[in-house]
């Protein structure tokens, strides 16, 4: 195998600097795709992870666009901020050790996801107003916490929900743009993880299985919590806190 091909297959994150964190955050990126697929298609055109979309939707709704809800967008935004606040508090206490930080954040974030799964399991053919807002709030809290955690962990190109800058980097750092190409592999892995999660969430929601999508998301977060527990006692270079992006 040529050195060029070997380089293309090389793990694109620094194993010393980031250890097991990229794998765990890739899994959480899949979770973001799943829950946004569920929320957008099953809860009335609202995102719970992608807050840029909600700000835009809020503007559209205030302008009178049909199919959008001011209340739903505001609920998602407020709950996301609450989740981010909780995530910030967890980071303030445990941010000095990235393994323990992720372990605690994933464990705390699992609670609203499991509650949302329980609510969704009792939903019939249609979602009532109370169920809808409960699910939006619970999922947005979990995603706010997750995003605050990813920001504090500062693993390159793994924010778990925002891909605008990731995709911008793919094009603007490319050889066609006169640059060196940049870390294309890790950026495309992040995009693929989000795409895969959104596809799974959409397929399950469109077939009336919202609760299965949320159970899958909960299971992935639980696995990440267990993975962080297993590595959380390690004190290698990767466990040391780095500056947020």
Structural summary, described in words:
With 245 residues, the chain is an all-alpha fold. It has a single domain (18-235), classed as Up-down Bundle (Growth Hormone, Chain: A), CATH 1.20.1250. Helices cover 71% and strands 0% of the residues. The chain contains ten helices and no strands. Helix 3 runs antiparallel to helix 10 (210-231), helix 6 runs antiparallel to helix 7 (129-153) and helix 8 (164-172) crosses helix 9. The two termini are 36 Å apart. The relative contact order is 0.20. The model is unreliable at 1-7 (pLDDT under 50).
Number of strands: 0
Highest-level CATH class: Mainly Alpha
The CATH topology assignment is Growth Hormone, Chain: A
Overall residue-averaged pLDDT value = 89
The CATH architecture would be: Up-down Bundle
Helix content: over 70%
Tell me the structural class.
Answer: mainly alpha
Strand content: under 5%
Number of domains: 1
Shape annotation? globular
- Number of DSSP helical runs: 10
Order of helices and strands: HHHHHHHHHH
Give the biggest sheet: none
Unreliable segments of 5+ consecutive residues: 1-7
- What is the CA-CA span between the terminal residues? 36 Å
**Backbone CA Rg:** 18 Å
Features of this protein?
245 residues; mainly alpha; Growth Hormone, Chain: A; globular; disordered N terminus
Q: How is this fold's topology laid out?
A:
Blueprint: H1 3-9, H2 15-18, H3 21-42, H4 51-62, H5 70-94, H6 98-121, H7 129-153, H8 164-172, H9 184-206, H10 210-231
């Amino acid at each position: 195998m040529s050195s060029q091909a070997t380089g293309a297959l090389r793990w694109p994150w620094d194993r010393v600097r980031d250890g097991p964190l990229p794998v765990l955050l890739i899994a959480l990126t899949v979770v973001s795709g799943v829950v946004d697929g569920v929320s957008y298609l099953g809860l009335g055109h609202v995102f719970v992870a992608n807050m840029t979309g909600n700000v835009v939707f809020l503007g559209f709704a205030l302008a009178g666009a049909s199919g959008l809800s001011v209340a739903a967008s505001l609920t998602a935004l407020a709950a996301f901020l609450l989740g981010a606040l909780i995530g910030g508090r967890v980071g303030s206490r445990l941010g000095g050790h990235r393994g323990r930080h992720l372990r605690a954040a994933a464990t705390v974030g699992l609670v609203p996801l499991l509650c949302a799964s329980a609510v969704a399991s009792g939903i019939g053919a249609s979602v009532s107003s109370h169920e809808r807002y409960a699910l939006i709030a619970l999922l947005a809290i979990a995603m706010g916490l997750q995003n605050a955690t990813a920001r504090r962990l500062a693993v390159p190109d793994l924010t778990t929900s925002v891909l605008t800058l990731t995709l911008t980097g793919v094009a603007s750092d490319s050889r066609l743009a006169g640059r060196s190409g940049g870390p294309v592999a890790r950026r495309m892995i992040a995009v693929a993880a989000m795409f895969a999660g959104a596809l799974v969430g959409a397929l399950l929601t469109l077939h009336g299985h919202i609760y299965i999508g949320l159970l899958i998301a909960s299971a992935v977060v639980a696995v990440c919590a267990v993975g962080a527990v297993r590595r959380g006692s390690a004190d290698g270079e990767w466990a040391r806190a780095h500056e947020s992006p």
